[in-house]
Amino acid sequence: xxxxxxxxxxxxxxxxxxxxxxxxxxxxxxxxxxxxxxxxxxxxxxxxxxxxxxxxxxxxxxxxxxxxxxxxx
Length: 73
What we know:
mainly beta
């Protein structure tokens, strides 16, 4: 099982990214996408990799509420 440092940004439609609630957490899992599906509040909207090679999973409700998870090994 891999250990990831996860940067979680909780974005609401009023404040946007600038005023998002941010936190770091440590997660042990085999599949980050499966982890977000099972533990996230919203369905997965998109999965990308950033310039540093970290996995970025964006979830949301389609009304402006979103949570971005950045998984770093």
